[in-house]
Amino acid sequence: MRIAIAGGSGFVGEPLVRRLVSRGDDVVVLTRNPGKVRAGRGVVWDGRSAGGWTSEVAGADVVINLAGENVAEGRWTAERKRQLLNSRVDSTRALVNAIETGPARSRTFINASAVGYYGLRGDELLTESGSAGAGFLSDLVKQWEAEAGHAEKSARLVILRFGVILAADGGALAKMLLPFKLGAGGRIGSGQQWMSWISREDVVRMIEWAIAEDGARGVYNVTAPEPVRNQDFTKALGKALHRPAVFPVPGFVLKAVFGEMAGEVLLGGQRVVPERAMQAGFVFSDRMLETALKRALQA
Description:
- This protein has 299 residues and is an alpha/beta fold.
- The protein has one domain: Rossmann fold (3-Layer(aba) Sandwich), CATH 3.40.50.
- The protein has helices at 13-22, 53-58, 78-100, 136-149, 171-181, 200-212, 230-241, 251-258, 260-266, 275-279, 289-298, and strands at 2-6, 26-31, 41-44, 62-65, 108-114, 125-126, 156-162, 164-166, 194-195, 197-199, 218-222, 228-229, 271-272.
- The chain has a 7-stranded parallel beta sheet, sandwiched between helices.
- The model has no long low-confidence stretch (mean pLDDT 96).
């Protein structure tokens, strides 16, 4: 199978590419720096304009878009918000346009998204049928998904709303490890905010499932079946590391340092469940947080 992946050298993309290559797929990684591609075939793209990469996408059986700058890196200034939005919307538009240049045939377009779509909803249990919320993240995701929606006339479209992805070499977990290892870890703010988490292994497996499952269409929450509160997550992480988890980070400190981003990303959260994936028969490798943390820390 011929697969083109934007963001294929990132936190999720690299292990996904390795998995697909190992099973015999011809994988093209769209990247600004092909020299850093360690699996698959690196092809230059800028995430916006057409180029030599366009024919690779037009001829692919599956196109996967994982491109987008990290929303949790620093304050959300006006310029930073613009970058976060454009890195998602521009790349999605470029990929959809490239797909449309190819001949009409059966193909699949898988686009990343985020549970930030639902906004801050307290204890409300959220499935894929939940409405969009308010706030910058929700607005960003709505525009991102709307851009991906243009692919429906040319491909089977699957939109994957990722939760907090757990792996020790990147993402939120990697940032939390050092203070916990030093014995200075603890809950964030009140600790009552929900964390809809998922192991990176299950993210990769769900993308594989979306590729193989012809009936998979539309939006899927990519989260484990059992979301937890932040205070329970930090307790579980402390236990896994054999370290205390008794030093909370006050919310007002985070807001002073990170501003609006702290309120939506660090102190906020969503209680999300993967209803559609479970109904379709997807089986999670890591259903419980303790198991997922143990596996991630041993990897």
